[in-house]
């Protein structure tokens, strides 16, 4: 029995489409009602989570859609997964929900076990974790850690703060509030709070009208596809981009404490970088004394065929911080250097310091992923799917261009001619019962769960072909 | 032996209270029939040996340097927090003011065990794209039913910091839109924003108050002005801070001076606004500056702030993360002010478990979708808990009960203050529910008091430089207040005889 059959013996055999347009009439009514109190303009449809199962999301009009978007890449093991249901009904979980502790001050007697479960699925080379609540929060906590670390190096890890620092910080000015930067990349997405939005460079709509830190941005490689055909050009592109990073480190007007990068720029268009590029970055961060933060919020937790996508790069040494959220349900950063823990207590601190309810769920997700070796399954299904999409690409080269994600399991994307064509494609796919998402202006990204199998891939490919055949 | 005598006295007090307790049905006795009637002390000191051992283990994977002791939440009940050694402490700190209805509240337990909750935990939606059919109703019956007067919309978030930051974003987008007039962004805005430069990136500011605490992410931390340790080494926006009134106590004896102090602060506020080099999009203020030392101001001051905001077209954000959800004797503390015009946004978190901001003006929702947006846009599992919390507060009239209990606490503490005027100063929070605080004369005396409380089985927290704050749950009744007061009195006798 396949894993999806084990988890979901009653999973639908295929999509069922009842509505002639999306959102359907019942969804529309409910959206209007919700919109009175909660901004509902981005709603695709209103879902019935009780009826959703495995890889299928059911809406309030009774449509059953194969979901390869999975709540913007954040459902790990399918809807209503029985193993997660067990975790959700466990005594430990119930307690975590009703007695939510301020874990920095009053950790529960089960906290060590909860954290140890998160550490069991830590990226290679990482053995500590600090928890947050969302991807944006995780990244900002990592930035704080980087700034503490950078100033600690400068001042001496155990040195006291100066009177001038203590005074100036209350005015938001240097030296207490130092001018330091985090370097990010064009088209990157790292969240939408103030510092995370400052390093986000995906689209204007993500950033407009917010004050931003004056931090530098480098260029992320733009490869030509297929990769096998353009090895020389793409290697040149890596060199060009690395030279820009080095130039920024040398010339930026203030010190750069950390660099943040996604293993695959997801919101920004599923842009990939080579192993050589990432090792080059690692070397530059060491050369210039900055921390390397790998943002695995979207790429992490198995979908690329490794538990953590950057493990594909075999970096030496390992990154300093790895942030996570989405599919892990809990959020935070992994690290290994004890000096990334600030010199004194209450610096990396807040009321909740994470959410044990979500940490317990993450532990259960990690356990299932390891038990069933789901990254290997994703890799197997991904190769199968990629090969089928390659064939489709040959048939429909206009609407399926720059196919990306070879050897990255189901973390696959491609581009269409323009935004209008892409948006039409996403809408049309609902008519064949597939919920699918876009990224950047003109791309489509596949973000299915980790229990997405060949049979689901077949339905997806047939759906794509049906739509493309009509173009 | 301090500990032995303390323990003996507690047992006596407990048996006295047990007699009284049967006479009146407190909400705690309904929720928690087996709640202890006094702290239970099992070990010679707290943290006890098991707590110490577990904390050492925990330290291998978690920065536990701020841990007071290791708790056993399963054994905790009502107003009593159990530690790993089986000590049960009367908790007037309640997870830094974030437990609403007591530990292991049976109604919350029902909610947590419901299928609705299980689904919210395991099928967490990207709320703004694929909301569940129930979410709207859950908001309407819970978070929105509790909305401050004059507010009928909410944007949900995950913590106090992110509630405040999403409110700041709403403010920046609103002000920019107003200035722009047109719904279209200019080419220059669209290109400059990708360089983090004006005009696309705003150079506007959020104004906050000295000693304010609004969180620790980068935008919220730029408005936090409580202590250096909260801010050091973190880059900050060059945003302005205005002075918050330093009132003299008792208020009745210093009416004239306090009025002058509030006028001074209002004058300074107006001056800062006029002289600030950039636009100020919004001002954020706590009804009581909590982390900053439980600093209060009068309704006159807040009405003055409201008037200045209106005059200069600055949005007024009231940060009710710590003050909200009943503890002040009103559901929202700012309702004590009777403002002529409601605040523009009110943020919440902590005791509500869910977080976010309330508002009324539809223009605080950006004209274009996907601007105030993120993957999760809140957490339905927390909205379910918030709904139960709201419904229980209404069912048992816990806001008014908290006011009554607060009166008892305040009056007795006032009497205690008159006995120890050189030790205990500036009692604050009259007619403000259980949201009470006072000062010691030094950090050390404050620390000695907090530590001694723990040894007597009371878990209590500090704030500011030398203050003690009471932040009990809403199920903290008269019986708990009397017990607490007796223990405090005993500690004062012990420490200062």
UniProtKB/TrEMBL annotation, chain A:
Pfam families: Aminotran_3
Statement: the UniProt record of this protein carries the keyword Transferase: yes
Cofactor(s) the protein requires to work: pyridoxal 5'-phosphate
GO biological process: gamma-aminobutyric acid catabolic process
Assigned GO CC terms: mitochondrion
Record's keyword terms, sorted: Aminotransferase, Pyridoxal phosphate, Transferase
Catalytic activity: 4-aminobutanoate + 2-oxoglutarate = succinate semialdehyde + L-glutamate
Residue ranges, annotated region (Disordered): 1-24
One Gene Ontology MF term: pyridoxal phosphate binding
Domain of life from the UniProt record: Eukaryota
EC number(s) given by UniProt: 2.6.1.19
Matching InterPro entries: 4NH2But_aminotransferase_euk (IPR004631), Aminotrans_3 (IPR005814), Aminotrans_3_PPA_site (IPR049704), PyrdxlP-dep_Trfase (IPR015424), PyrdxlP-dep_Trfase_major (IPR015421), PyrdxlP-dep_Trfase_small (IPR015422)
Matching CDD domains: OAT_like (cd00610)
UniProt entry tagged with the keyword DNA damage: no
Family matches, as PANTHER family: 4-AMINOBUTYRATE AMINOTRANSFERASE, MITOCHONDRIAL, AMINOTRANSFERASE
Family: Belongs to the class-III pyridoxal-phosphate-dependent aminotransferase family.
Protein's name according to its UniProt entry: 4-aminobutyrate aminotransferase
Source organism of this protein record: [Candida] railenensis
Taxonomic placement: Eukaryota, Fungi, Dikarya, Ascomycota, Saccharomycotina
UniProtKB/TrEMBL annotation, chain B:
The protein's Enzyme Commission number: 2.6.1.19
Catalytic activity: 4-aminobutanoate + 2-oxoglutarate = succinate semialdehyde + L-glutamate
GO molecular function, one term: 4-aminobutyrate:2-oxoglutarate transaminase activity
GO annotation, cellular component aspect: mitochondrion
Family annotation (PROSITE patterns): AA_TRANSFER_CLASS_3
Source organism, top-level taxon: Eukaryota
Keywords annotated in UniProt: Aminotransferase, Pyridoxal phosphate, Transferase
GO biological process: gamma-aminobutyric acid catabolic process
One Pfam family, short name: Aminotran_3
Cofactors required: pyridoxal 5'-phosphate
NCBIfam families: GABAtrns_euk (TIGR00699)
The family this protein is said to belong to: Belongs to the class-III pyridoxal-phosphate-dependent aminotransferase family.
Assembly and interaction partners: Homodimer and homotetramer.
Protein name: 4-aminobutyrate aminotransferase
């Amino acid at each position: 029995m396949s894993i999806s059959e084990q988890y979901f013996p009653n999973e639908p055999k295929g999509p069922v489409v009842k509505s002639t347009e999306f959102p359907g009439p019942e969804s529309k009514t409910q959206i209007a009602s919700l919109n009175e109190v909660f901004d509902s303009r981005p709603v695709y449809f209103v879902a019935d989570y009780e009826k959703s199962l495995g890889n299928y999301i059911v809406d309030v009009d009774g449509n059953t859609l194969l979901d390869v978007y999975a709540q913007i890449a954040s459902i790990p093991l399918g809807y209503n997964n029985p193993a997660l249901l067990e975790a959700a009904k466990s005594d430990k979980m119930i307690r975590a929900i009703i007695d939510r502790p301020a874990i920095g001050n009053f950790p529960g007697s089960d906290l060590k076990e909860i954290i140890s479960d998160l550490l069991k699925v830590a990226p290679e080379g990482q053995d500590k974790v600090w928890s947050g609540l969302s991807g944006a929060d995780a990244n900002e906590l990592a930035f704080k850690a980087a700034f503490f670390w950078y100033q600690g190096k400068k001042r001496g890890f155990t040195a006291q703060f100066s009177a001038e620092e203590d005074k100036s910080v209350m005015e938001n000015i240097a030296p207490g509030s130092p001018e330091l930067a985090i370097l990010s990349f064009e088209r990157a997405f790292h969240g939408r709070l103030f510092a995370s939005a400052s390093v986000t460079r995906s689209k204007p709509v993500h950033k407009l009208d917010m004050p931003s830190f004056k931090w530098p941005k480098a260029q992320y490689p733009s490869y030509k596809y297929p990769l096998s055909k353009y090895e020389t050009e793409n290697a040149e592109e890596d060199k060009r981009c690395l030279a820009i990073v080095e130039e920024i480190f040398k010339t930026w007007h203030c010190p750069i404490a950390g660099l943040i990068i996604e293993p695959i720029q997801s919101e920004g268009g599923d842009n990939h970088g080579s192993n050589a590029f990432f090792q080059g970055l690692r070397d530059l961060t060491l050369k210039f004394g900055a921390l390397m933060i790998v943002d695995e919020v979207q790429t992490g937790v198995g979908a690329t065929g490794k538990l953590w996508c950057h493990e594909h790069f075999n970096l030496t040494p390992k990154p300093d911080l790895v942030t996570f959220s989405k599919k892990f349900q809990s959020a935070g950063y992994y690290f290994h250097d004890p000096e990334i823990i600030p010199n004194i207590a209450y610096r990396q601190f807040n009321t909740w310091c994470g959410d044990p309810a979500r940490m317990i769920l993450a532990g259960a997700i990690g356990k299932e992923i390891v038990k069933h070796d789901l990254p290997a399954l994703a890799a197997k299904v991904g190769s199968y799917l990629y090969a089928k999409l390659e064939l489709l690409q040959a048939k429909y080269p206009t609407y399926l261009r720059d196919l990306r994600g070879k050897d990255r399991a189901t973390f696959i994307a491609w581009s269409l001619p323009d935004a209008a064509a892409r948006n039409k494609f996403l809408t049309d796919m609902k008519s064949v019962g597939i919920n699918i998402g876009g990224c950047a202006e003109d791309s489509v990204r596949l973000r299915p769960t980790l229990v997405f199998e060949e049979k689901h891939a077949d339905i997806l490919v047939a759906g794509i072909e049906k739509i493309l055949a009509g173009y | 032996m301090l500990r032995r005598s303390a323990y003996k006295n507690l047992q006596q007090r407990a048996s006295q209270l047990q007699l009284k307790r049967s006479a009146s049905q407190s909400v705690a006795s309904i929720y928690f029939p087996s709640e202890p009637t006094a702290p239970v002390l099992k070990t010679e000191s707290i943290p006890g040996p098991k707590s110490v051992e577990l904390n050492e283990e925990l330290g291998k994977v978690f920065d536990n340097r701020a841990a007071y002791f290791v708790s056993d939440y399963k054994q905790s009940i009502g107003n009593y927090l159990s530690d790993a050694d089986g000590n049960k402490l009367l908790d007037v700190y309640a997870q830094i003011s974030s437990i609403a209805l007591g530990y292991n509240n049976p109604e919350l337990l029902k909610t947590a065990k419901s299928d609705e909750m299980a689904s919210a935990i395991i099928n967490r939606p990207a709320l703004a794209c694929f909301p569940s059919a129930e979410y709207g109703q859950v908001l309407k019956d819970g978070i929105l039913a509790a909305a401050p007067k004059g507010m009928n919309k909410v944007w949900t978030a995950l913590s106090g910091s992110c509630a405040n930051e999403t409110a700041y974003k709403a403010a920046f987008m609103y002000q920019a839109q107003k200035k722009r007039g047109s719904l279209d962004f200019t080419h220059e805005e669209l290109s400059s924003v990708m360089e983090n430069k004006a005009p696309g990136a705003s150079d506007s500011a959020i104004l906050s108050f000295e000693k304010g605490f609004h969180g620790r992410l980068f935008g919220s931390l730029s408005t936090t002005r409580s202590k250096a340790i909260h801010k050091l080494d973190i880059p900050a926006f060059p945003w302005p801070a205005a002075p918050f009134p330093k009132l003299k106590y008792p208020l009745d004896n210093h009416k004239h001076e306090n009025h002058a102090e509030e006028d001074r602060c209002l004058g300074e506020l107006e001056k800062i606004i006029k002289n600030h080099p950039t636009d100020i999009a919004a001002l954020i203020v706590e009804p009581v500056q909590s982390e900053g030392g439980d600093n209060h101001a009068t309704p006159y001051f807040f009405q003055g702030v409201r008037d200045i905001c209106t005059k200069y077209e600055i949005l007024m954000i009231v940060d009710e993360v710590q003050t909200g959800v009943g503890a002040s004797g009103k559901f929202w503390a700012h309702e004590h002010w009777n403002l002529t015009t409601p605040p523009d946004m009110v943020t919440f978190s902590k005791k509500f478990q869910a977080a976010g901001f309330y508002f009324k003006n539809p223009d605080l929702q950006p004209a274009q979708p996907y601007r105030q947006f993120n993957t999760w846009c809140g957490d339905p599992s927390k909205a379910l808990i918030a709904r139960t919390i709201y419904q229980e507060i209404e069912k048992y009239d816990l806001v008014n009960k908290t006011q009554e209990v607060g009166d008892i606490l305040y009056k007795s503490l006032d009497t205690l203050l008159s006995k120890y005027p050189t030790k205990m100063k500036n009692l604050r929070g009259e007619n403000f529910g259980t949201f009470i605080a006072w000062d010691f004369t030094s950090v050390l005396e404050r620390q000695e008091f907090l530590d001694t409380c723990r040894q007597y089985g009371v878990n209590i927290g500090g704030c500011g430089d030398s203050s003690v704050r009471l932040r009990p749950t809403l199920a903290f009744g008269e019986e708990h207040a009397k017990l607490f007061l007796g223990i405090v009195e005993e500690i004062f006798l012990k420490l200062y005889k």
